[in-house]
Amino acid sequence: MCSAYYLQKEGHAITIIERGNITDGCSFGNMGYMSPSHFIPLASPGIIAEGIKYMLNSSSPFYIKPRLDMDLIQWAYHFWKSSNAKTVEKNAPHLNNILQLSRHLMNDMRHEIGDYFDMQAIGCLMMCKQTKTLHHEFHMADDAEKFGLKVERLNAAQVQQLEPDVELNVAGAVLFKDDCHFDPGKLMNTLKDHLIKSGITFQLDTTVTGFEKKDQKITAAITDKGKFDADEFIVATGSWLPVVAKMMGIKLLLQAGKGYSYTYPFVEKNIKYPAILVDGRCAITPWGNKLRIGGTMEISGINNKVLIKRMQGIYDSAKEFYPGLKIGFPPADKIWNGLRPVTPDGLPYIGRVTDYSNVIFAGGHAMLGISEGTGTGKLVSEIISEKKTTIDINAFRTNRF
Ligand SMILES: Cc1cc2nc3c(=O)[nH]c(=O)nc-3n(C[C@H](O)[C@H](O)[C@H](O)COP(=O)(O)OP(=O)(O)OC[C@H]3O[C@@H](n4cnc5c(N)ncnc54)[C@H](O)[C@@H]3O)c2cc1C
User: Fold this and answer.
1) Ligand 1 within 6 A of 182 CB?
2) 0.85 exceeded by the pTM?
3) Among the four 28, 160, 161, 362, which has the fewest Cβ within 10 Å?
4) Alpha-carbon distance 210 to 7, whole Å?
5) Ligand 1 atom 31, closest CA
6) Which of the listed residues 223, 240, 372 should we mutate to test ligand 1's pocket, taking the one with most ligand atoms within 8 A of CB?
7) Mean pLDDT of all residues in 92-121
8) Which of 126, 160, 159 lies closest to 141, judged by CA?
9) How far apart (Å, rounded) are the C-alpha atoms in residues 239 and 120?
10) CA dist 86 to 21, 43, 81, 90, 272, Å?
11) Does residue 244 have its Cβ closer than 6 Å to ligand 1?
12) d(CA 306, CA 113)
């Protein structure tokens, strides 16, 4: 939808083909952070050791289910190869570029489509329970400042001052002031309404099943509701990017990373700031009296199976960090889950594919699809309009593995 938003400004006629009806999915139940603070990719030093440590723990926040699946094995190999300081140092500036571009563009988009999605630009706390974790976060804050981000290093008493209504149990936090948060489901609805008003066609409840090809071009998308011709095709199918790529004969390394969340409709004494609970590897977001807790990264294939124990891990962390928060364990049938599209190196795939002259991939944003949405849309419109892209996108090329 972000690509459509920028393309219609350039005068293109657009049809969005979507299997569902844009009322649920990964872009709805996430934590709603727009996080320039997240310039370190998931594949980073220590993550492999952490994954192995957590492997046998069913309430752990990070898990790769071992399977004899060639795609997973290749993905895991490149994930392992990317998890080192040198690659992170190389990739972090690119992640920073698209995150800062997106954050900047969000201010304009909000102004144009109307803020009906409870956006608050008050920053996000990286909350730490252990002193060791806090020191690591302070070190990260130094790196963030090098990228021009505004940060505040806070001790326990200073964090408590920010949350006067709820008792905390933390060593301290870093407040990343450039981050903002909003209700992602409301943003999706607002953007959809805006696009409909702008004349974009939504072809909903329609599944793409294949493509017609001629020479080096895709000429039509074949769906269960008929054929759709177009000059250009943008594939933005999240965790199903490799499935649709395969229909074109293209192999793409990407795994679905399942996450869970639960939204409390009314918390009387609520927190004010969204926060990543760093040692707990989960997150918490307030919108007025509403509160969402969420997290986990479970690489277990494309499925929507809910493992209650993982939600237990998230809930327990929230209670440990905020003992004063009066929230009960979520009802099992109300636990939401979504599939993050995770690339091996933590950078998205944005750009033309090499096999066809009229196909662009836009996806693989992992934990940052909300944070990188506007930037991605803008870049896609620049590629199609044959303009110089605002930032260098070579690192996001689709054939890099
Ligand atoms: C618990 C959790 C918390 C998160 N928190 C944050 C956060 O705070 N900030 C942030 O930036 N990101 C966050 N994320 C990540 C973010 O939600 C994702 O990166 C983002 O939603 C991915 O968006 P997408 O449009 O690429 O994919 P999706 O939202 O999955 O959309 C892909 C669409 O393609 C459709 N589709 C697939 N195949 C076909 C087909 N063959 N034909 C037609 N349609 C098809 C699907 O139906 C789907 O609607 C979080 C994720 C989780 C799980």
Assistant:
1) no
2) yes
3) 161
4) 24
5) 238
6) 240
7) 97
8) 126
9) 28
10) 42, 12, 10, 6, 37
11) yes
12) 35
